[in-house]
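Researcher: Structure for this, please.
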Amino acid sequence: ELKLFCSNKNLPIMPGTENTFLSYKMYNSGFYKAIYLMWLLGSDDNVGVNAHIIETSLLSDVELKNGYQDAIKASISNKRYIRRIFGTAHTSGFRFGKSVPALIIYKDGKPIDVYPHAKKEGDANYRFSTTIFEFLELLVEE
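Model: Predicted structure, token format:
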């Protein structure tokens, strides 16, 4: 099961529109194509994927926090780094599903992965690695 947390209040209406969404451009790269792939996965009965787009502006603070907690669980189990993608060192998760959309993958009701994320490579610091679009593109190709 795939759940894409995003808010249309933070999406640019047209290219070049200045808003919060664009300031996190590298995390959101290919996002409009990702929306299309989510729709494609959710509408194709042959694929066997439950794909849901969740409008975060309609969620309560508790529901949004629960989504972020799922992202944290998935990131810990896969050694992914998400804290500064969805927030700051001092304010955890305030961008989650708002200015930075989040895709959480569930298996048997449990969160198993989250995008976008960073991974540690060798002795280096965490490096940004995979966007939502890049993951979905690979999934559709399979």
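Researcher: Any notable elements?
Model: Residues 12-23 have pLDDT under 50 and may be disordered. The first strand starts at residue 2 and ends at 6.
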